[in-house]
């Protein structure tokens, strides 16, 4: 009996250690600065290059500078937009960067979220596998295409691209099968001939080209809405907007980060690469980093026409019950910050 109790104690101790380690980094990790009875702002983002504005604002201390010493900053990283919005719905995240697709999906069911600023345009590409026989968009007829998550921004972008050549996904009575897979797994899927193409964000598109012999079908400036393709936006819960000073402080830091990246791209690359290595344990090589930076644009602008068209496509896909997104985009705080 004592032996069993001892074994159980050891197992529990190991589990506590593992959970503690998982809490510090990766897809579900949180890391805080500050302490005591301070106000807390929970910032969410993905550990990838399209969230570089958030990463730079954290690493350069812009958030800490704008929030001040009386605010505790908690960071939370997630692996996809659905998890981000679930965390926001449960108040694990107050504000942060995410793709507009997941925001639309949640807003249509509960209009408690707001898009406050742009963050990154582009940063996504469409790549065909070597043995797929796919040479242009029309060749995707009857093929299987990987997307990060059903209802993701890249999913919506792919649907937009397919519309332009008269194709539809099988879920809408068409012939193109969409296959949800983590971007990091797409190179393996290409090598195994499990998918014919992938709509993915950088640096995964470049990795598919260089490590899995993929062919670039649509570069970032041609995929979906081209350079206006909104990949990442700043989003917050409506109730968080009651803290107007905190909202403006976040946006001031965000604007600083966007401007820093534009003015200091080489230094920004190093900052982002180091941050991602710390989070994921993986190093992005220089070629991947340069390719990714060349295929996106950091910005605070939001093209509301594009967001509306995304909503129209999401409704057609039956991801959302309504494409009425009046009130979703709220740029007044950004405008005040930029005065």
Care to describe what's here?
The protein is α/β, with parallel strands linked by helices and 339 residues long. It is 42% helix and 19% strand. The protein has 13 helices and twelve strands. It has a seven-stranded mixed sheet with strand order 1-3-2-4-11-5-12, sandwiched between helices. Helix 9 (244-263) packs across helix 10. The radius of gyration is 21 Å and the shape is globular. Residues 1-35 have low confidence and may be disordered.
Q: List low-confidence stretches.
A: 1-35
Mean pLDDT: 89
* Proportion of residues in β-strands: 15-25%
Shape: globular
Helix content percent band? 40-55%
**Cα gyration radius (Å):** 21 Å
Structural class: alpha/beta
DSSP strand tally: 12
Helix and strand succession?
HEEHHEHEHEEEHEHEHEEHHHEHH
Q: What does the main sheet amount to? A: 7 strands, mixed
Question: What spatial order of strands do you see in the largest sheet?
Answer: 1-3-2-4-11-5-12
Number of helices: 13
| Through-space gap between termini | 71 Å
Give me the oligomer status.
single chain
């Amino acid at each position: 009996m004592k032996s069993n109790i001892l074994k159980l104690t050891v197992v529990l101790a190991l589990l506590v250690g593992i959970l503690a380690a998982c809490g510090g980094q990766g897809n579900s990790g949180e890391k805080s600065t500050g302490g005591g009875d301070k106000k807390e702002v929970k910032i969410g983002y993905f550990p990838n290059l399209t969230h570089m504005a958030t990463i730079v604002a954290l690493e350069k201390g812009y958030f800490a500078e704008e929030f001040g010493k009386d605010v505790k900053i908690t960071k939370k990283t997630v692996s996809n937009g659905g998890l981000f919005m679930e965390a926001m719905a449960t108040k694990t995240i107050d504000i942060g960067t995410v793709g507009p697709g997941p925001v639309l999906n949640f807003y249509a069911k509960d209009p408690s979220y707001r898009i406050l600023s742009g963050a990154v345009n582009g940063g996504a590409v469409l790549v065909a596998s070597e043995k797929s026989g796919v040479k242009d968009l029309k060749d995707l007829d009857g093929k299987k295409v990987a997307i990060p998550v059903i209802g993701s921004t890249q999913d919506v972008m792919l649907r937009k691209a397919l519309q332009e050549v008269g194709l539809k996904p099988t879920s809408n009575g068409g012939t193109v099968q969409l296959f949800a897979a983590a971007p990091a797994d797409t190179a393996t899927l290409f090598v195994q001939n499990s998918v014919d193409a992938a709509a993915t964000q950088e640096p995964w598109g470049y990795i598919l080209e260089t490590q899995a012999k993929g062919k670039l079908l649509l570069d970032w400036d041609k995929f979906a809405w081209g350079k206006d393709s909104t990949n990442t936006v700043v989003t917050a819960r409506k109730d968080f907007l009651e803290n107007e000073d905190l909202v403006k402080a976040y946006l001031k830091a965000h604007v600083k980060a966007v401007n820093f990246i534009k003015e200091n791209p080489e230094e920004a690359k190093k900052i982002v690469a180091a941050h991602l290595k710390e989070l994921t344990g993986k190093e992005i090589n220089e070629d991947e980093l340069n390719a990714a930076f060349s295929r996106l644009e950091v910005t605070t602008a939001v093209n509301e026409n594009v967001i509306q068209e995304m909503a129209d496509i999401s409704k057609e896909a039956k991801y959302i019950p309504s494409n009425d997104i009046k009130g979703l985009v709220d740029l007044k705080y950004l405008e005040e910050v930029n005065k």
